[in-house]
Specification:
Length: about 120
């Protein structure tokens, strides 16, 4: 028997990768149309999975890192969007994101899914 638990899902996107290069190559009109379709598809995905969404999360902005030496630096990472979902298993939580619009329409290239412990 599995126990439902919460999972953090973090969408990733290589800002130097092929999906971003293709996005930047689009005209403003093409980007706007893709965004329109993507936003509608994300809303439909969220509606279809509303019982699994614990915290909707959202896009992540620029990153600052503080090292163990106390130095604060600007950095770029792959973290793009996050949310918290509930599922019966780690596998089930990951499978929620198959064909998600952030990957099939927008520029994300994966979703990292991990249990929230404690």
């Amino acid at each position: 028997m599995s126990v439902e638990t919460h999972y953090l899902a973090v969408f990733t996107s290589d800002k130097t990768g092929p999906k971003w290069r293709a996005w930047r190559a689009m005209s403003e009109a093409e980007q706007a149309e893709t965004a329109r379709r993507g936003v509608a598809a994300v809303a439909a995905w969220e509606e279809a999975h509303r019982d699994s969404i614990v915290f909707q999360g959202g896009p992540l902005g620029p990153t600052k890192r503080i090292g163990d030496d106390g130095a604060v630096t600007d950095m770029v990472n792959l973290l793009t969007v996050f949310m918290v979902v509930r599922a019966d298993s780690h596998e089930a939580a990951a499978r929620l994101f198959e064909n998600h619009p952030h990957m099939s329409i927008f520029v994300c290239d994966g979703v990292e899914v991990m249990p929230v412990l404690g």
